[in-house]
Structure to design on (375 residues):
């Protein structure tokens, strides 16, 4: 049995409920929809009091590694937004991009007030020999269990996203040991040890491909690749150390699960929109620095687009959020005033001190204004 047929067989064996809202999948295929679908990066997280209640009892990676807890926090925003008559059009499994370095054998801690921390980051190329090529089904089985459980619990209401970090973004964390202001240590590898850098990036790519395909087998109906640190690279460095691996991921995953939409979100890499639109990704995610009309012109029907209200705009009043949303949507309209091939989202993820009601106002505005007659 081929890898692709094995994935399909795994999917079929779960016998999931039929999907009732497929707007997001249609938009990813650039098909007309009755209103623009919308979801939010980090839509399950610390801005929700119900999530904070779970975190008060369990540490971060315990939630990630416990399928029942991961399922619960994934469902929390769906319940809240539905109750407010602003239903989301997709869910995204609660996990973290850094489960991949953990699967490679690295220790990652989530430190309160600091974020991710690697007690023993990669210091020199020889440290690559300490990494292992994992069997993702064993090393990350808890993610797949969470996906299957959550897909069943959603009951077909909306599609379920799986996701991963991109190779360069994961490499940066693994070398810097956490967040960074300038990524000097990781970027030093690119210039001083390009062979070692490519070796690490290829290892990560190989694992990511297996990981994404297995997520589909477990129930994911769409996939997003987060290259959160893409903007730390110059255009030439991204062309050498970022883009080729992103493109390879899309080509290899699509060869195995061709029907599942793939989204790439290369934050800060506005210079790469044309190149990313030429890959096998179905959707190009946009951060808040990209003008909607310019992105539409560059992508030019080769891919759908996703985004991209500034997440800080959610600090505004609901009326202002609605006005800003209308301006954003108008920027995305084509020459006929249509919004085909658009998935609503933010330019980056929800922040811990966001008011959930303001996020609800944004989702409601996307739906209502995208149903309105332009002009």
């Amino acid at each position: 049995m081929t890898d692709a047929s094995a994935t399909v067989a795994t999917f079929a064996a779960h016998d999931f409920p039929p999907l009732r809202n497929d707007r997001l999948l249609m938009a990813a295929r650039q098909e007309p929809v009755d209103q623009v679908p919308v979801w939010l990066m980090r839509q399950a997280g610390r801005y929700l009091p119900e999530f904070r209640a779970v975190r008060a009892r369990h540490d971060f990676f315990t939630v990630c590694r416990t399928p029942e807890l991961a399922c619960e926090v994934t469902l929390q925003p769906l319940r809240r937004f539905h109750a407010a008559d602003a239903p989301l059009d997709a869910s995204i499994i609660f996990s973290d991009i850094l489960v991949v370095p953990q699967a490679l054998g690295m220790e990652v801690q989530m430190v309160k007030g600091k974020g991710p921390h690697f007690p023993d980051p990669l210091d020199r190329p020889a440290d690559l020999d300490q990494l292992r090529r994992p069997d993702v089904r064993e090393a990350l089985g808890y993610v797949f269990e969470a996906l299957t459980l959550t897909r069943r619990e959603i009951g077909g209401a909306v599609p379920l996203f799986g996701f991963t970090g991109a190779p360069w973004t994961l490499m940066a964390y693994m070398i810097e040991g956490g967040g960074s202001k300038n990524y000097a240590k990781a970027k030093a590898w690119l210039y001083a040890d390009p062979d070692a850098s490519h070796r690490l990036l290829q290892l990560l790519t190989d694992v990511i491909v297996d990981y994404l395909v297995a997520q589909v087998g477990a129930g994911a109906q769409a996939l997003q690749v987060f290259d959160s640190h893409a903007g730390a690279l110059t255009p030439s460095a991204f062309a050498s150390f970022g883009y080729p691996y992103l493109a390879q991921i899309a080509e290899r995953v699509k060869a195995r699960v061709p029907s599942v939409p793939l989204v790439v979100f290369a934050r800060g890499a506005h210079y790469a929109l044309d190149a990313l639109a030429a890959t096998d990704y179905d959707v190009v995610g946009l951060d808040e620095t990209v003008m909607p009309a310019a992105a539409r012109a560059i992508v030019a029907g080769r891919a759908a687009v996703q985004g991209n209200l500034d997440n800080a705009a959610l600090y505004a009043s609901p009326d202002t959020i609605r006005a800003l949303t209308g301006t954003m949507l108008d920027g995305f309209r084509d020459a006929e005033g249509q919004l085909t091939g658009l998935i609503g989202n933010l330019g980056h993820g929800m922040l811990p001190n966001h008011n959930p009601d303001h996020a609800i106002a944004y989702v409601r505005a996307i739906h209502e204004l995208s149903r309105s007659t332009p002009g």
